[in-house]
Write a structure and sequence with these properties.
The chain is α/β, with parallel strands linked by helices and about 425 residues long. Helices cover about 40% and strands about 20% of the residues. The protein is built from 16 helices and 13 strands. Helix 3 runs antiparallel to helix 8 and helix 11 crosses helix 12. The longest helix has 15 residues. The N terminus is likely disordered.
Length: about 425
Protein backbone atom coordinates (compact mmCIF):
# COMPACT_ATOMS: atom_id res chain seq x y z
CA UNK A 1 0.00 0.00 0.00
CA UNK A 2 1.41 3.38 -0.92
CA UNK A 3 1.62 6.48 1.23
CA UNK A 4 -0.83 9.31 0.76
CA UNK A 5 -0.64 12.00 -1.88
CA UNK A 6 0.82 14.40 0.74
CA UNK A 7 4.14 12.59 0.50
CA UNK A 8 7.13 14.25 -1.14
CA UNK A 9 9.51 11.68 -2.56
CA UNK A 10 13.01 13.06 -1.87
CA UNK A 11 13.40 15.96 0.56
CA UNK A 12 17.04 17.07 0.77
CA UNK A 13 18.79 18.33 3.88
CA UNK A 14 18.63 21.82 2.36
CA UNK A 15 14.86 21.40 1.95
CA UNK A 16 14.50 20.45 5.59
CA UNK A 17 16.60 23.33 6.91
CA UNK A 18 14.60 25.75 4.80
CA UNK A 19 11.39 24.17 6.06
CA UNK A 20 12.28 24.75 9.72
CA UNK A 21 13.81 28.18 9.14
CA UNK A 22 10.55 29.34 7.55
CA UNK A 23 8.11 27.61 9.91
CA UNK A 24 9.91 27.83 13.27
CA UNK A 25 11.53 31.26 13.39
CA UNK A 26 10.79 31.69 17.10
CA UNK A 27 11.59 28.06 18.07
CA UNK A 28 8.32 27.87 20.00
CA UNK A 29 6.58 24.64 20.95
CA UNK A 30 3.65 25.64 18.70
CA UNK A 31 6.03 25.92 15.74
CA UNK A 32 7.79 22.67 16.60
CA UNK A 33 4.49 20.80 16.72
CA UNK A 34 2.90 22.85 13.91
CA UNK A 35 -0.16 23.16 16.12
CA UNK A 36 -1.72 26.23 17.74
CA UNK A 37 -2.97 24.02 20.57
CA UNK A 38 0.48 22.59 21.31
CA UNK A 39 0.62 23.59 24.97
CA UNK A 40 -2.57 21.66 25.72
CA UNK A 41 -1.60 18.63 23.62
CA UNK A 42 1.75 18.44 25.40
CA UNK A 43 0.07 17.93 28.78
CA UNK A 44 -1.24 14.53 27.65
CA UNK A 45 1.29 13.76 24.95
CA UNK A 46 4.39 13.77 27.18
CA UNK A 47 3.28 11.36 29.92
CA UNK A 48 1.70 9.06 27.35
CA UNK A 49 4.90 8.76 25.32
CA UNK A 50 7.04 8.28 28.42
CA UNK A 51 4.71 5.50 29.63
CA UNK A 52 5.28 3.53 26.42
CA UNK A 53 9.05 3.49 26.94
CA UNK A 54 10.71 0.67 28.88
CA UNK A 55 12.07 1.55 32.30
CA UNK A 56 14.99 3.90 31.53
CA UNK A 57 16.09 4.47 35.12
CA UNK A 58 19.89 4.34 35.22
CA UNK A 59 20.21 3.81 31.44
CA UNK A 60 22.06 5.68 28.69
CA UNK A 61 19.66 7.26 26.18
CA UNK A 62 20.33 8.72 22.72
CA UNK A 63 17.70 11.26 21.64
CA UNK A 64 17.73 11.94 17.90
CA UNK A 65 15.93 15.03 16.60
CA UNK A 66 15.88 16.47 20.11
CA UNK A 67 14.95 19.95 18.85
CA UNK A 68 14.25 22.54 21.54
CA UNK A 69 13.99 19.78 24.15
CA UNK A 70 10.35 18.82 24.39
CA UNK A 71 11.33 15.36 25.67
CA UNK A 72 14.96 15.89 26.65
CA UNK A 73 14.14 16.90 30.21
CA UNK A 74 11.66 14.03 30.65
CA UNK A 75 14.36 11.57 29.58
CA UNK A 76 17.11 13.17 31.69
CA UNK A 77 14.93 13.08 34.81
CA UNK A 78 15.04 9.26 34.73
CA UNK A 79 18.05 8.18 32.67
CA UNK A 80 21.65 8.02 33.88
CA UNK A 81 22.73 9.99 30.82
CA UNK A 82 21.13 11.52 27.72
CA UNK A 83 22.85 12.48 24.47
CA UNK A 84 20.57 15.00 22.72
CA UNK A 85 21.18 15.53 18.98
CA UNK A 86 19.61 17.92 16.49
CA UNK A 87 20.84 19.27 13.14
CA UNK A 88 19.55 22.83 13.70
CA UNK A 89 22.13 24.67 15.82
CA UNK A 90 19.64 27.23 17.16
CA UNK A 91 17.31 24.50 18.45
CA UNK A 92 19.95 22.47 20.28
CA UNK A 93 21.30 25.66 21.88
CA UNK A 94 17.81 26.56 23.13
CA UNK A 95 17.48 23.00 24.42
CA UNK A 96 20.78 23.36 26.29
CA UNK A 97 19.82 26.73 27.78
CA UNK A 98 16.59 25.28 29.14
CA UNK A 99 17.46 21.68 30.09
CA UNK A 100 21.19 22.10 30.63
CA UNK A 101 20.50 24.41 33.53
CA UNK A 102 18.32 21.74 35.18
CA UNK A 103 20.21 18.53 34.46
CA UNK A 104 23.93 17.75 34.52
CA UNK A 105 23.56 14.39 32.76
CA UNK A 106 22.92 15.67 29.21
CA UNK A 107 25.36 16.08 26.34
CA UNK A 108 24.05 18.43 23.64
CA UNK A 109 25.29 17.86 20.08
CA UNK A 110 24.52 19.67 16.84
CA UNK A 111 24.63 16.99 14.17
CA UNK A 112 22.76 15.25 11.38
CA UNK A 113 21.22 11.95 12.51
CA UNK A 114 22.01 10.45 9.11
CA UNK A 115 25.72 11.29 9.39
CA UNK A 116 26.62 11.35 13.08
CA UNK A 117 28.63 8.40 14.41
CA UNK A 118 28.51 6.55 17.74
CA UNK A 119 30.12 3.36 18.99
CA UNK A 120 28.50 -0.06 18.89
CA UNK A 121 26.45 -0.70 22.04
CA UNK A 122 27.03 2.82 23.33
CA UNK A 123 23.39 3.28 24.41
CA UNK A 124 20.60 1.31 26.06
CA UNK A 125 17.77 3.20 24.33
CA UNK A 126 17.46 5.27 21.17
CA UNK A 127 14.53 7.71 21.25
CA UNK A 128 13.17 9.86 18.44
CA UNK A 129 9.99 11.89 18.12
CA UNK A 130 9.03 13.17 14.65
CA UNK A 131 12.37 12.55 12.95
CA UNK A 132 12.01 9.78 10.38
CA UNK A 133 9.25 11.53 8.46
CA UNK A 134 11.82 14.19 7.53
CA UNK A 135 14.20 11.64 5.98
CA UNK A 136 14.19 9.83 2.65
CA UNK A 137 13.46 6.10 2.50
CA UNK A 138 17.15 5.33 1.95
CA UNK A 139 18.12 7.51 4.92
CA UNK A 140 15.58 5.78 7.20
CA UNK A 141 16.84 2.34 6.14
CA UNK A 142 20.44 3.29 6.92
CA UNK A 143 19.51 4.98 10.20
CA UNK A 144 17.56 1.88 11.32
CA UNK A 145 20.75 -0.18 10.93
CA UNK A 146 22.77 2.44 12.81
CA UNK A 147 20.22 2.61 15.63
CA UNK A 148 20.41 -1.16 15.94
CA UNK A 149 24.22 -1.03 16.15
CA UNK A 150 24.25 1.86 18.66
CA UNK A 151 22.15 0.04 21.27
CA UNK A 152 23.33 -2.80 23.48
CA UNK A 153 21.89 -6.32 23.12
CA UNK A 154 18.54 -6.20 24.88
CA UNK A 155 18.26 -2.46 24.23
CA UNK A 156 15.27 -0.63 22.79
CA UNK A 157 14.41 1.73 19.94
CA UNK A 158 11.39 4.02 20.24
CA UNK A 159 10.12 6.33 17.50
CA UNK A 160 6.92 8.27 16.91
CA UNK A 161 5.78 9.63 13.54
CA UNK A 162 2.88 11.32 11.76
CA UNK A 163 1.51 8.68 9.40
CA UNK A 164 -0.73 8.88 6.34
CA UNK A 165 -1.16 12.68 6.46
CA UNK A 166 -0.29 15.81 8.43
CA UNK A 167 -1.64 16.23 11.95
CA UNK A 168 -1.01 19.84 12.99
CA UNK A 169 -3.44 22.74 12.74
CA UNK A 170 -0.72 24.95 11.22
CA UNK A 171 -0.38 24.14 7.51
CA UNK A 172 2.89 25.36 5.96
CA UNK A 173 2.91 26.32 2.28
CA UNK A 174 6.07 24.30 1.71
CA UNK A 175 6.01 20.82 3.27
CA UNK A 176 8.63 18.19 2.32
CA UNK A 177 7.48 15.82 5.08
CA UNK A 178 6.97 12.13 4.20
CA UNK A 179 3.71 10.86 5.70
CA UNK A 180 4.37 7.15 5.34
CA UNK A 181 2.09 4.23 6.13
CA UNK A 182 2.57 1.61 8.84
CA UNK A 183 3.99 -1.05 6.54
CA UNK A 184 6.80 1.23 5.35
CA UNK A 185 8.19 1.80 8.85
CA UNK A 186 7.65 -1.84 9.74
CA UNK A 187 9.70 -2.91 6.74
CA UNK A 188 12.57 -0.49 7.42
CA UNK A 189 13.14 -1.77 10.95
CA UNK A 190 12.26 -5.45 10.49
CA UNK A 191 14.97 -5.81 7.86
CA UNK A 192 17.71 -4.06 9.86
CA UNK A 193 20.57 -6.48 10.65
CA UNK A 194 23.86 -6.18 12.57
CA UNK A 195 26.34 -9.03 11.89
CA UNK A 196 28.18 -10.65 14.82
CA UNK A 197 31.69 -12.09 14.56
CA UNK A 198 30.53 -15.65 15.34
CA UNK A 199 28.34 -15.71 12.23
CA UNK A 200 25.09 -14.84 13.93
CA UNK A 201 23.48 -11.41 13.73
CA UNK A 202 21.36 -9.00 15.74
CA UNK A 203 17.95 -7.85 14.60
CA UNK A 204 14.98 -5.97 16.00
CA UNK A 205 12.06 -7.71 17.65
CA UNK A 206 8.80 -5.84 17.25
CA UNK A 207 7.17 -5.02 20.61
CA UNK A 208 4.24 -2.68 19.91
CA UNK A 209 2.88 0.02 17.61
CA UNK A 210 -0.05 2.16 18.72
CA UNK A 211 -1.95 5.43 18.37
CA UNK A 212 -1.00 8.35 20.55
CA UNK A 213 -4.26 8.47 22.50
CA UNK A 214 -3.97 12.17 23.35
CA UNK A 215 -4.26 13.16 19.68
CA UNK A 216 -7.18 10.81 19.22
CA UNK A 217 -9.07 12.13 22.24
CA UNK A 218 -8.38 15.83 21.70
CA UNK A 219 -8.29 16.08 17.91
CA UNK A 220 -9.96 12.90 16.64
CA UNK A 221 -6.62 12.20 14.97
CA UNK A 222 -5.47 8.54 14.74
CA UNK A 223 -2.38 9.27 12.62
CA UNK A 224 0.10 9.84 15.43
CA UNK A 225 1.68 6.41 15.79
CA UNK A 226 4.63 5.16 17.83
CA UNK A 227 6.74 2.00 17.71
CA UNK A 228 8.87 0.13 20.25
CA UNK A 229 11.55 -2.38 19.17
CA UNK A 230 13.84 -4.70 21.15
CA UNK A 231 17.35 -5.81 20.09
CA UNK A 232 17.74 -9.61 19.94
CA UNK A 233 19.94 -12.24 18.32
CA UNK A 234 18.51 -13.65 15.10
CA UNK A 235 16.60 -15.70 14.16
CA UNK A 236 13.58 -13.70 15.23
CA UNK A 237 11.40 -15.30 17.88
CA UNK A 238 8.39 -17.40 16.96
CA UNK A 239 5.94 -14.51 17.34
CA UNK A 240 7.89 -12.24 14.96
CA UNK A 241 8.12 -15.01 12.37
CA UNK A 242 4.42 -15.75 12.74
CA UNK A 243 3.46 -12.10 12.30
CA UNK A 244 5.49 -11.93 9.10
CA UNK A 245 3.78 -15.14 7.94
CA UNK A 246 0.35 -13.62 8.57
CA UNK A 247 1.11 -10.42 6.66
CA UNK A 248 2.67 -12.23 3.71
CA UNK A 249 0.04 -14.95 3.44
CA UNK A 250 -3.35 -15.09 5.13
CA UNK A 251 -3.49 -11.36 5.82
CA UNK A 252 -1.71 -9.97 2.81
CA UNK A 253 -3.56 -6.92 1.50
CA UNK A 254 -4.73 -8.87 -1.54
CA UNK A 255 -6.05 -11.77 0.54
CA UNK A 256 -7.78 -9.46 3.03
CA UNK A 257 -9.67 -7.62 0.31
CA UNK A 258 -10.57 -10.86 -1.51
CA UNK A 259 -11.89 -12.47 1.70
CA UNK A 260 -13.82 -9.33 2.56
CA UNK A 261 -15.49 -9.50 -0.86
CA UNK A 262 -16.06 -13.26 -0.57
CA UNK A 263 -18.04 -12.91 2.66
CA UNK A 264 -19.83 -9.83 1.33
CA UNK A 265 -19.32 -7.75 4.44
CA UNK A 266 -17.34 -4.53 4.46
CA UNK A 267 -14.64 -4.53 7.12
CA UNK A 268 -14.88 -8.24 7.98
CA UNK A 269 -12.96 -11.32 6.84
CA UNK A 270 -15.04 -13.85 8.80
CA UNK A 271 -18.21 -15.73 7.80
CA UNK A 272 -21.31 -13.88 8.93
CA UNK A 273 -19.62 -10.49 8.85
CA UNK A 274 -21.21 -7.72 10.88
CA UNK A 275 -24.30 -9.79 11.82
CA UNK A 276 -22.24 -12.33 13.78
CA UNK A 277 -20.19 -9.51 15.29
CA UNK A 278 -23.36 -7.82 16.57
CA UNK A 279 -24.62 -11.11 18.08
CA UNK A 280 -21.33 -11.57 19.91
CA UNK A 281 -21.29 -7.98 21.16
CA UNK A 282 -24.82 -8.41 22.50
CA UNK A 283 -23.49 -10.98 24.99
CA UNK A 284 -21.43 -8.27 26.68
CA UNK A 285 -24.38 -6.05 27.73
CA UNK A 286 -22.23 -2.96 27.20
CA UNK A 287 -22.91 0.31 28.98
CA UNK A 288 -21.86 3.84 28.05
CA UNK A 289 -18.37 4.76 29.26
CA UNK A 290 -17.11 1.22 29.80
CA UNK A 291 -13.61 0.13 28.76
CA UNK A 292 -13.49 -2.72 26.23
CA UNK A 293 -10.56 -4.77 24.92
CA UNK A 294 -10.89 -6.49 21.54
CA UNK A 295 -8.34 -9.24 20.94
CA UNK A 296 -7.86 -9.60 17.19
CA UNK A 297 -9.42 -6.31 16.12
CA UNK A 298 -8.60 -6.88 12.44
CA UNK A 299 -9.85 -4.10 10.16
CA UNK A 300 -11.54 -2.38 13.08
CA UNK A 301 -15.19 -2.78 12.15
CA UNK A 302 -16.33 -4.44 15.37
CA UNK A 303 -14.39 -1.97 17.53
CA UNK A 304 -15.91 1.04 15.80
CA UNK A 305 -19.38 -0.53 15.95
CA UNK A 306 -19.12 -0.95 19.74
CA UNK A 307 -17.75 2.57 20.24
CA UNK A 308 -20.35 4.21 18.04
CA UNK A 309 -23.36 2.19 19.21
CA UNK A 310 -22.73 1.90 22.95
CA UNK A 311 -20.40 4.82 23.71
CA UNK A 312 -17.70 2.53 25.10
CA UNK A 313 -13.95 3.17 24.92
CA UNK A 314 -12.35 0.40 22.84
CA UNK A 315 -8.73 -0.78 22.65
CA UNK A 316 -8.27 -3.02 19.62
CA UNK A 317 -5.18 -5.26 19.50
CA UNK A 318 -4.00 -7.21 16.47
CA UNK A 319 -0.70 -8.84 15.48
CA UNK A 320 -1.11 -8.17 11.75
CA UNK A 321 0.37 -4.91 10.48
CA UNK A 322 -1.71 -5.12 7.30
CA UNK A 323 -4.98 -5.56 9.18
CA UNK A 324 -4.07 -2.72 11.52
CA UNK A 325 -3.05 -0.51 8.59
CA UNK A 326 -6.62 -0.81 7.28
CA UNK A 327 -8.02 -0.24 10.78
CA UNK A 328 -6.04 3.00 11.18
CA UNK A 329 -7.24 4.19 7.78
CA UNK A 330 -10.85 3.34 8.59
CA UNK A 331 -10.61 5.16 11.92
CA UNK A 332 -9.63 8.36 10.15
CA UNK A 333 -12.88 8.17 8.16
CA UNK A 334 -15.31 7.51 11.01
CA UNK A 335 -13.61 10.14 13.24
CA UNK A 336 -14.33 8.41 16.54
CA UNK A 337 -12.35 9.54 19.57
CA UNK A 338 -13.12 6.49 21.73
CA UNK A 339 -11.32 3.82 19.68
CA UNK A 340 -7.60 3.22 19.38
CA UNK A 341 -5.62 0.36 17.88
CA UNK A 342 -2.39 -1.39 18.78
CA UNK A 343 -0.22 -3.80 16.84
CA UNK A 344 1.24 -6.27 19.32
CA UNK A 345 1.35 -9.86 20.54
CA UNK A 346 -1.43 -10.12 23.11
CA UNK A 347 0.54 -12.75 25.04
CA UNK A 348 3.44 -10.32 25.48
CA UNK A 349 1.24 -7.28 26.13
CA UNK A 350 0.73 -6.03 29.67
CA UNK A 351 -2.11 -3.88 30.97
CA UNK A 352 -2.78 -2.95 34.61
CA UNK A 353 -5.04 -5.39 36.45
CA UNK A 354 -8.76 -4.65 36.22
CA UNK A 355 -8.37 -2.31 33.23
CA UNK A 356 -11.42 -3.46 31.29
CA UNK A 357 -15.16 -3.94 31.76
CA UNK A 358 -15.43 -6.36 28.85
CA UNK A 359 -13.26 -8.37 26.46
CA UNK A 360 -14.29 -9.66 23.06
CA UNK A 361 -12.52 -11.86 20.53
CA UNK A 362 -13.71 -13.41 17.30
CA UNK A 363 -11.92 -16.03 15.19
CA UNK A 364 -8.54 -15.04 16.66
CA UNK A 365 -7.59 -17.38 19.49
CA UNK A 366 -7.01 -20.20 17.01
CA UNK A 367 -3.75 -18.38 16.19
CA UNK A 368 -2.57 -18.59 19.82
CA UNK A 369 -0.96 -21.76 21.16
CA UNK A 370 -0.61 -20.87 24.86
CA UNK A 371 -4.26 -20.41 25.70
CA UNK A 372 -3.74 -20.96 29.44
CA UNK A 373 -1.39 -17.97 29.67
CA UNK A 374 -3.73 -15.93 27.48
CA UNK A 375 -6.80 -16.56 29.63
CA UNK A 376 -4.81 -15.95 32.79
CA UNK A 377 -3.94 -12.48 31.47
CA UNK A 378 -7.46 -11.75 30.27
CA UNK A 379 -8.83 -12.76 33.66
CA UNK A 380 -6.44 -10.36 35.43
CA UNK A 381 -7.31 -7.47 33.10
CA UNK A 382 -11.07 -7.77 33.71
CA UNK A 383 -12.82 -5.99 36.55
CA UNK A 384 -15.02 -8.04 38.93
CA UNK A 385 -18.38 -8.85 37.41
CA UNK A 386 -17.17 -8.18 33.86
CA UNK A 387 -17.87 -10.30 30.80
CA UNK A 388 -15.81 -11.90 28.06
CA UNK A 389 -17.33 -13.06 24.75
CA UNK A 390 -15.37 -15.38 22.45
CA UNK A 391 -16.14 -16.97 19.10
CA UNK A 392 -13.49 -19.31 17.76
CA UNK A 393 -12.97 -22.34 15.57
CA UNK A 394 -12.67 -25.59 17.55
CA UNK A 395 -11.79 -29.20 16.84
CA UNK A 396 -14.75 -31.54 16.51
CA UNK A 397 -15.34 -34.78 18.39
CA UNK A 398 -14.14 -36.93 15.50
CA UNK A 399 -10.48 -37.69 14.92
CA UNK A 400 -8.73 -35.14 12.71
CA UNK A 401 -7.92 -36.48 9.26
CA UNK A 402 -4.34 -36.37 7.90
CA UNK A 403 -5.45 -33.85 5.27
CA UNK A 404 -6.96 -31.59 7.92
CA UNK A 405 -3.82 -31.85 10.06
CA UNK A 406 -1.70 -30.73 7.11
CA UNK A 407 -4.01 -27.79 6.52
CA UNK A 408 -3.84 -26.74 10.18
CA UNK A 409 -0.04 -26.95 10.11
CA UNK A 410 0.14 -24.95 6.88
CA UNK A 411 -2.08 -22.19 8.28
CA UNK A 412 -0.38 -22.38 11.70
CA UNK A 413 -3.73 -22.81 13.46
CA UNK A 414 -3.76 -24.02 17.08
CA UNK A 415 -7.24 -25.49 17.39
CA UNK A 416 -8.53 -27.20 20.51
CA UNK A 417 -11.90 -28.76 21.28
CA UNK A 418 -14.70 -26.92 23.04
CA UNK A 419 -14.19 -29.21 26.04
CA UNK A 420 -10.52 -28.21 26.25
CA UNK A 421 -11.53 -24.56 26.20
CA UNK A 422 -13.90 -25.19 29.09
CA UNK A 423 -11.22 -26.99 31.11
CA UNK A 424 -8.89 -24.00 30.83
CA UNK A 425 -11.66 -21.56 31.75
CA UNK A 426 -13.01 -23.51 34.72
CA UNK A 427 -9.55 -23.85 36.30
CA UNK A 428 -9.47 -20.04 36.44
CA UNK A 429 -12.90 -19.88 38.07
CA UNK A 430 -14.64 -18.11 35.21
CA UNK A 431 -18.39 -18.04 35.73
CA UNK A 432 -19.84 -19.47 32.52
CA UNK A 433 -23.07 -17.86 31.35
CA UNK A 434 -23.75 -19.48 27.97
Amino acid sequence: MSSTKDQVVCPTRTDMKQYWEVNAKDSSVEEMMLDANASVLTLGDHPEVMAILPNINGLRVLELGAGIGRFTGDLAAKAAHVTAVDFIDEYIKKNERFNGSKYSNIDFKCGDATQIQFGAGEFDVVFSNWLLMYLTDVEVQKLAVNMLRWIKPGGYIFFRESCFRSSGSIKPNFNPTQYRNLSAYQGFFETAVEPIADGRSYSLEFVVAKNIHTYLKQKGNPHQICWLWHKIVKPANVVSMFRMFLDSDQYSFEHILCTEKLFGSSGHVCPGGQDVAKDLVQQLTLQNGQMVLEVGSGMGSCATYMAETFGVDVTGVDLSVNMSHLAFQMLSKVKLKNVHFEISDIIARNYPDQSFDAIISRDTLMHIRDKKTLFSKLHAWLRPGSRIAIADYCLGTKETTPEHKKYLEKMKYNLVSADEYMKVLTTMKWFYLQ
